[in-house]
Amino acid sequence: MIEIFTTGGTIDKVYFDANSEFDIGDSLVGELLAESNIHEGFSVSGLMRKDSLEMTDEDRETVRNAVSQCPAEHVLITHGTDTMAETANALLSVKGKTIVLTGAMQPARMRRSDAAFNIGFAWAAARLLPHGVYIAMNGEVFEAGSVRKNLKAQRFERT
């Protein structure tokens, strides 16, 4: 069983107009998994609907508490990319679980989004990796504490 926690971020953004006004909508993670023919073996819980730039230390503590208290050994977290590495670092104290954070550079609702691939990739990572905290984005896995987002290149890289 994989416990999936959603926190918001670009993956769940809904844009309203050309001026880039947006809101964080309902998560599409269940639909994305269904498109990949994954219909069971997971539970989805929405923790918050925030752009990751708005996440606070208290929000990270909420995520950490939810992960540490859930009975699942395998955890997937959807998260905004801008502060994903910070939240991954905040989860390093949780032991005995494989925790994988993922998100998207383009909203799942957009035609050319990396969301479906990233969710499927993170699903596999959560099932196959040893206990620890990881970021799985765009075909690469990074260990928490040694990754950052390169804003200019719009990708994650090892530090």
TrEMBL record:
Tree of life domain: Bacteria
PROSITE patterns in alphabetical order: ASN_GLN_ASE_3
Record InterPro entries: Asp/glu_Ase-like_sf, Asparaginase/glutaminase-like, L-asparaginase_N, L-asparaginase_N_sf
Pfam families: Asparaginase
Domain L-asparaginase N-terminal, first and last residues per copy: 2-150
UniProt xrefs under SUPFAM superfamilies: Glutaminase/Asparaginase
GO molecular function, one term: asparaginase activity
Protein name: Asparaginase
Residues forming the catalytic site: 10
Binding site for substrate: 52, 81-82
